[in-house]
Amino acid sequence: MKVLKKLFVILAISLLLVTVFQNNIFAYNWMAEVNNQAGGEAAAEGAGAVNAVTSIAGAALTIARLVCVGVAIVMLVVLAIKYMSSAPGDRATIKKHAVVYVVGALVMFASSGILGIIQQFSGAIKPSN
After folding, report:
1. How many C-beta atoms lie closer than 10 Å to residue 43's C-beta?
2. What does the pLDDT look like over 105-125, one tens digit per residue?
3. Backbone angles phi, psi at 125, to 5 degrees
């Protein structure tokens, strides 16, 4: 209960600080700054910001896809090494738990594929002038 109470107090203090500084944070014109960073004539129309955000989102999706595939491969390799290096009596136990790891790896591969589809769709979207 003490941990829950401490967590609640920290959450309440954080919420209080956000509400106190909310006007200062949200008063800044962030879109103008993004347009200035994007540069060019298209920045005046907002297309520069859209292109900048699209490229950043594309990079983030690519990184997420690589992490998904990497984690899935590492999970399967670790499971295979465990299985091969275990004693014959322990292999039955590993087989019971292997289903969870294999399903997890399949979910990771599927999420990587879904992220790829999202990335293709988002790459096809062009800003309107």
Report:
1. 19
2. 888 888 888 888 887 777 666
3. -80, 125
Consecutive H or E run containing 16: helix 2-26
- The tokens describing 123, both together, are 């790459």
Cα 122 to chain centroid distance, Å, stands at 16
- What is the C-alpha to C-alpha distance for residues 56 and 106, in angstroms, rounded to an integer? 27
Assess contact for 69 and 108: CB atoms under 8 A: yes
- Please say if the pLDDT value at position 35 is more than 70: no
Alpha helices in 28-124 (DSSP H): 30-38, 42-45, 47-85, 88-124
Domain boundaries, the chain: 1-38, 46-129
Cα 46 to Cα 32, 60, 83, 87, 113, distances in angstroms: 9, 21, 56, 63, 31
pLDDT single digits (tens) 22-31: 665 555 666 6
Given the structure tokens 């994007």, which residue do they identify?
38
- How high is the pLDDT of residue 27? 59
